[in-house]
Amino acid sequence: MRKVKFAAALMAGILALSVLAGCGGGRNETSAAETTKTAEEGSTGTPETLKTGAAMRVGSLKGPTSMGLVNLMKDAEKGSTANSYEFRMETQADTLLAAMAGGDLDAALIPANVAAVLYQKTQGQISVLNINTLGVLYIITGNSDIQSIEDLKGRTLYLTGKGTTPDYVIRYLLRESGVDISDVTLEYKSEAAEVAAILKENPDAAGLLPQPFATVACAQNESLKPVLDLTEVWENLQQGKGSRLVTGVTVVRNEFLQENPDSVRSFMEDCRVSAEAAQKDVKGTAGLVAEAGIIEKEAVAEKALPYCSIVYIDGTEMKEALSGYLQVLYDQNPQSVGGNMPGDGFYYMAETK
């Protein structure tokens, strides 16, 4: 009965997310921030029994969140993890949520605000385990006159997803930097590839692009470069308030968590180790990223990885960073986080070593 209720609530959440994305007049934020090309589905074979509990099925989005997971995928393939896993990658968050609704996934790496919406729509039947990716948004241009957010005044900025997180983030940063939004023309495109194409033809233009699109755009035209890391801009404006620009989080079904606490703790530790490997062994991780089909060329993956803000943050630091970020979104549009700020039950406060 609990699974039926969860599935019904989760499907309602998926519909709500689709409607919210549709109101933005473009593709949903997952596409804007994470899609590269068509995703290849991960292993779907029958999992082995976990040494610490039940088999764990994990879904992720093709992009930076999966890039931080590839070392774990490789370790699991070699049988060197305490848990055994099944992994699958998708290009759309909706697909992952539907898989959870059908009982085909136990955990998923999804956009932070999507997790908040899902928490509301399922009446608290999921928990956030960690932050896996901080900000991946960059201002790209060949115009040397643009060195700060204030320098966007009087200019056109090309970006994707009106009414989605990139839009909310840039509006917040403009306002906090003292720039009237009416002084910047925000021109929205349906896909990041469109923005990249504009910049390739006109390097003096300015575009807001996520990784790895930002790295790809710069590779296509040597005149282009990332002039502003919005994660750094955000943190400079916060002045130690705890809020951080968050892209992706890892969520788990509470039913699975309650039945398999040791498996979940092992999973958290595995995620931490995988993220640290992505930070320290960029070349080796880039090879795995290309092997997984996340980015086609290993050389591009190697260039993009240091800019993808792959992290592992849990416990109190996770709660402070994520709640502050969600508050910024809520203040602009409450529906972007499900209508209400999530309560304390949203955050699984266990910490890895």
Automatic annotation (TrEMBL):
Keywords: Signal. Residues 28-50 are annotated as: Disordered. Residues 29-46 have a biased composition (Low complexity). It comes from the Bacteria. SUPFAM superfamilies: Periplasmic binding protein-like II (SSF53850). Residues 1-21 form the signal peptide. Pfam families: NMT1 (PF09084). Residues 129-280 form the SsuA/THI5-like domain. This is NitT/TauT family transport system substrate-binding protein. The lineage of its organism: Bacteria, Bacillati, Bacillota, Clostridia, Lachnospirales.
